[in-house]
Amino acid sequence: YYDRQFTKKLNELNTLGEKLFRYNPEDKLKILNNNLDAYYEKLNSTYKIFIKSENYKIDNLRDKLKILNSDNILKKGYAKICQNTKFINSVKDVDDKQNISLYMKDGKLLANVIEKEIFDGE
Q1: What dihedral do alpha carbons 83, 84, 86, 89 form, nearest 10°?
Q2: What is the mean pLDDT of each run of 10 residues along the chain (122 residues)?
Q3: DSSP state string for 51-86
């Protein structure tokens, strides 16, 4: 009777040993840890690429704002023209014999419109 019990327990122990060997938790933890490290590296790399892309977009928008900034346009020799606090962008919008203000990079000029000429095709 004891031999059979011993053999049965020995078989159970061998089966458990095989399962432990097959499902080795330490190896599984190592694999999972390696996978976690790989995911971390991939996430970190993706994050860096995303940040670099967003910084590039911000730099482009900053450059566009500098180009479109009216102060920078005035520095190039252009002027903003106003008549009665209304900005003028066409000769047609200027009233004859009225004053206009010309805003330049370093100040303002007040001028009187004597005559206006509208070019054909414009």
Answers
A1: -10
A2: 82 85 78 91 96 98 91 88 91 89 93 88 60
A3: HHHHHHHHHHHHHHHHHH-HHHHHHTT--EEEETTE
